[in-house]
Specification:
Blueprint (H helix, E strand, L loop, with lengths): L2 H21 L11 H15 L2 H5 L8 H29 L4 H22 L5 H18 L12 H8 L1
C-alpha cells in the first residue's frame, strides 16, 4: 500500500470517528428530573444572585471613565441573571417542567459566563466573585437535571446579550 492510500484510509477513519462522535451528542440529562430538587436549587440560586448587581456598585472602578462602559455592561448582565433566576424559581415553584424551564436555565449559564468574561477586563471580581462562585455551585447542582446540549439561542436574546 502506498503512503497516499495509507493517508487516505487514516483520514477516512478519522472522518468516521468524528461523524460518530458528533452524531450522538451528550444531550441526555445525567439525573432523572426531580421537581422538588430543581425548585429547591432554583430557590438557592435566586438567593445566591440576589443583590449581585448592587455589589458591583461598590467598585471604585466607577470613578474611572474608561471603565464605566464595561461596568454598565456587567451590571446589565447581572440584572438579567437576577431576573432570570427569579423567573426560573417562580416557574418551577408553579410546577413548570424541565422542558419549560430549560431555556431560562441555559440563559443564566450564558449570562454568568458573559459576566465573568467582562469582569476580567475590570477590577470588580472582589465584589462579584463570591456571588458568582455560589451561583456556579448551584448551577453545577442543577446541571444534571437538564440536558447538556444547549438549545439554540433566540435571535432577540442574542441581540440583547450582545449589548
Amino acid at each position: 500500500m502506498t503512503r497516499w492510500w495509507a493517508g487516505r484510509i487514516a483520514l477516512a477513519a478519522l472522518a468516521v470517528a468524528l461523524a460518530v462522535s458528533l452524531a450522538a451528542p451528550a444531550s441526555a440529562q445525567t439525573e432523572p428530573w426531580s421537581q422538588e430538587k430543581a425548585t429547591a436549587l432554583a430557590r438557592e440560586l435566586e438567593k445566591a444572585v440576589s443583590g449581585l448587581r448592587d455589589s458591583i456598585r461598590k467598585s471604585p472602578q466607577w470613578e474611572i471613565a474608561a471603565q464605566r462602559k464595561t461596568l454598565s455592561r456587567i451590571q446589565r448582565k447581572l440584572r438579567s441573571i437576577e431576573s432570570t433566576a427569579l423567573s426560573l424559581h417562580a416557574h418551577l415553584a408553579k410546577g413548570a417542567t424541565m422542558a419549560e424551564t430549560r431555556s431560562q436555565y441555559e440563559r443564566i449559564q450564558r449570562l454568568r459566563r458573559d459576566a465573568e468574561v467582562l469582569a476580567e477586563h475590570t477590577d470588580v471580581s472582589a465584589f462579584t466573585k463570591p456571588k458568582l462562585d455560589r451561583a456556579q455551585e448551584v448551577l453545577s447542582q442543577l446541571a444534571p437535571l437538564y440536558p447538556a446540549e444547549p438549545l439554540p439561542v433566540p435571535k432577540e436574546e442574542q441581540e440583547e446579550e450582545a449589548k
